[in-house]
Amino acid sequence: MNNEPAGSHPAFSTPLSHASLSRRALMRGAVAATGAVTVPSLLAACSDDSGSGGSGAKKTVTVGSNYSDAVPKKALADAVASFQQKSGDTVNVNTIDHNTFQEQINQYLKGTPDDVFTWFAGYRMQFFAAQGLATDISDIWGDIGSGYSDAFKAASTGADGKQYFVPYYLYPWAVFYRPSVFQAKGYTVPKTFDEYKTLAAKMKSDGLVPIAFADKDGWPAMGTFDYINMRLNGYDFHISLMAGKESWEDAKVKAVFDTWASLLPYLQEGALGRTWQEAAQSLQQKKAGMYVLGMFVGQQFSEEERKDLDFFPFPEIAPENGQDSVEAPIDGYMISKKAKNVAGAKDFLKFLATPEAQGIYLKSDPNNVATNKNADASGYTALQKKAVEIISGAKHISQFMDRDTRPDFASTVMIQAIQEFLKNPKDIDGLCKNIETQKKTIFATE
Questions:
Q1: CA–CA separation, 78 vs 95, rounded Å?
Q2: Where do the domains of the chain lie, and which CATH numbers do they carry?
């Protein structure tokens, strides 16, 4: 495997229909189976030697990857090494800083992209498929479909009914904590929002940072908004809001910000200058008591420390909504429309769809769960088993704000809006009015 340094490219920049993805349908199979350097203007293809994949052709596949953190980068390298050994083909991986990748992927796909690129299910997959920037891989699904539930296939399908995505893994967002800290302090896992705030107040009085928090990169705080909205107003309203069908000046939306404002005294200070990794380290170091994040928080823990990492669902706010919705993004792979080695790229994606390939990845990055229903879950950690349980037991799944809405709305409006709220939570009316004005302009272009 050739890991070219980030920045070797000259060019990079960014809804699954919003049908309610039943977690039971999505995870039925899983339960049954019990370098990062910001580059200038950005990504181009990793290599020019990839052939067509036909007989006698060079068999190099290039991959544009946002797996820039050490743990997922190694896990992908392990999977790639296995594919190369089995196929005899070569895979060149171009690793780009995660946030840069997302910011510049639109330019990348319109320029000289790699054959394969890492991406996300949901609206973000459909967005590029609709623009003609992705290759139809419906034929692959004829081979791999038996390994996936119908819900995963739906998550991989564009608005035209064709498949453009291969799911690789998924992970829940929840409230993470260290059981040893809870035991030592006599804390009890909260179920309701009032209990959550009471616990946070107790942690603060005990000298802990109640809730680790970071939003330097703009997206981590979105998960807190999503959960408060789903718990307060329900899944259907949340998804409708993300789709541009509800007003951001609705009293329901203002209530989300009001509720969030009541948590601010318990959030780690200086969030806009802190990365999620740094916030996770405060949890890992037992300086913070809780952290609302995806299960990838475990990447900042050693293997031994992960035995002392647990989570609970985001607390109930309105009894009628309970804790029935789970934020569980699906990550995977697509083939660019300008791929030079389409046949080789398809072979690689077929491999990634196998239980074996997903198992290899998860062995090095046990902070996710497999998407193939035949994946071997016997070696899952307690945290992974719990992830399968919470996902399969939920009534609804969301993909995360920047995946459930238009990418331009998420990046140009909501990142700034949430960060402005965190700096000035007192002008919620003005904030919501500004969001709504921009939303109307952006969604009018659909």
A1: 14
A2: 2-170+330-393 (3.40.190.10), 173-327+406-443 (3.40.190.10)
